[in-house]
């Protein structure tokens, strides 16, 4: 099983680039940019990664992102993630970034996007890895601030395929961002949103009905509603599930308690992703390995999960077919 997981070419659809900041790079950039971080060494950082819910993670994640200042910092951050893609056989990735985390500190939108883009261009040139960029609005901030961010993104519209919604979910329902998502759609952006990670399934209904999204990030709380499950199945709405994240943030008590096998057996369009791999103990292969070692997943389930990611990606139908053929070849 582990051999199959490693051998399969994969797509990743739910990865926050700021969440791929490894402690080693955090220290190097903190020193270079003279930013104070509240850790004395790498071990101290790892010890701090002991979360009890989404918010306890976000507090540490935003503090870590403070070390990112220059275009090269964003290049290095993205490049390190690309090297993990090479290791894990990820051949296509759709990465999130949080512009507001950086613009609020005086780092220009252009600095962030240019650094990320440059690394992704090198990834294509050196390794043939394809990619898209999705910018997320921080849902703990206002819709007005999301509108300002959308405005800042317009000059880079060709580099950003879609918009998403992340950060503190409880108390910040999708309905809060209805108008800005409508505007983003009019501007031609694809739409996704985190929904039903910690908050109940009503947030998933709102994301579908009010934001008109084409993928749900997380969505694991859908299991609490039979009616919603049937709808997600009928529409084959993609769910970008992140097992390590769900365990580290205590959405489920442990891997054996994760509902991914049930979601898959019901016929939902489920994909596996790493979310914030530097914080959640592993990249995409480790997510696959953790669920396969703890749940009764078959080799066919693993292949389905991998194929779902390509099918649910924002690439052309032609490229999707090429990638699906590569999966079949790897299966043998
Ligand atoms: O899992 C997440 N949920 C919400 N916001 C986030 N920002 C980074 N990761 C996450
Ligand atoms: Zn996420």
From TrEMBL:
Cofactor note: Binds 1 zinc ion per subunit.
Binding site for Zn(2+): 14, 16, 194, 275
Cofactor(s) this protein cannot do without: Zn(2+)
Keyword Zinc attached: yes
Source organism, top-level taxon: Bacteria
The UniProt record lists the keyword Hydrolase: yes
Adenosine deaminase domain: residues covered: 9-329
InterPro entries: A_deaminase_dom (IPR001365), ADE (IPR028892), Ado/ade_deaminase (IPR006330), Metal_Hydrolase (IPR032466)
Active site: 197 (proton donor)
UniProt signal peptide: none
Record keywords, A-Z: Hydrolase, Metal-binding, Nucleotide metabolism, Zinc
Chain sites annotated for binding substrate: 276
Alphabetized GO MF terms: hydrolase activity
The protein's Enzyme Commission number: 3.5.4.2
UniProt-listed Pfam families: A_deaminase
Reaction(s) this enzyme catalyzes, per UniProt: adenine + H2O + H(+) = hypoxanthine + NH4(+)
Transmembrane segments: none
Enzyme kind, highest EC tier: hydrolase
Site feature (Important for catalytic activity) residues: 218
UniProt record similarity statement: Belongs to the metallo-dependent hydrolases superfamily. Adenosine and AMP deaminases family. Adenine deaminase type 2 subfamily.
UniProt function note: Catalyzes the hydrolytic deamination of adenine to hypoxanthine. Plays an important role in the purine salvage pathway and in nitrogen catabolism.
Protein name stated in the entry: Adenine deaminase
UniProt organism field: Psychrobacter glacincola
Organism classification: Bacteria, Pseudomonadati, Pseudomonadota, Gammaproteobacteria, Moraxellales
């Amino acid at each position: 099983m582990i051999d199959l997981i490693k051998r399969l070419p994969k797509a990743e659809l739910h990865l926050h680039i700021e969440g791929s900041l490894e402690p080693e790079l955090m220290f190097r950039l903190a020193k270079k940019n003279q930013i104070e971080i509240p850790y004395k060494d790498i071990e101290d950082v790892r010890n701090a990664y002991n979360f009890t819910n989404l918010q306890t993670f976000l507090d540490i994640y935003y503090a870590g992102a403070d070390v990112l200042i220059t275009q090269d910092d964003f290049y290095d951050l993205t490049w390190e993630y690309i090297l993990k893609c090479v290791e894990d056989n990820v051949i296509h990735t759709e990465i999130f970034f949080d512009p507001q985390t950086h613009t609020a500190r005086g780092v220009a939108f252009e600095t962030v996007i240019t650094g990320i883009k440059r690394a992704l261009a090198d990834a294509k040139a050196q390794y043939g890895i394809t990619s898209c960029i999705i910018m997320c609005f921080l849902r703990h901030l206002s819709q007005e601030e999301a509108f300002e961010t959308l405005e800042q993104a317009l000059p880079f519209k060709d580099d950003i395929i879609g918009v998403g919604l992340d950060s503190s979910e409880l108390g910040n329902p999708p309905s809060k961002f209805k108008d800005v998502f409508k505007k983003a759609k009019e501007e031609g952006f694809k739409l996704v949103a985190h929904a039903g990670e910690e908050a109940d399934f009503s947030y998933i209904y709102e994301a579908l009905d009010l934001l008109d999204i084409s993928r749900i990030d997380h969505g694991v709380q859908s299991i609490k509603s039979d009616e919603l499950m049937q709808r997600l199945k009928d529409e084959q709405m993609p769910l970008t599930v992140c097992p390590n994240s769900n365990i580290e943030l205590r959405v489920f008590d442990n891997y054996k308690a994760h509902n991914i096998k049930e979601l898959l057996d019901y016929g939902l369009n489920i994909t596996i992703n790493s979310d914030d791999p530097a914080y959640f103990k592993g990249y995409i292969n480790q997510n696959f390995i953790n669920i396969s070692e703890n749940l009764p997943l078959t080799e066919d389930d693993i292949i389905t999960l991998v194929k779902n990611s390509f099918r649910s990606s924002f690439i052309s139908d032609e490229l999707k077919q090429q990638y699906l053929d590569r999966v079949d070849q790897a299966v043998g």
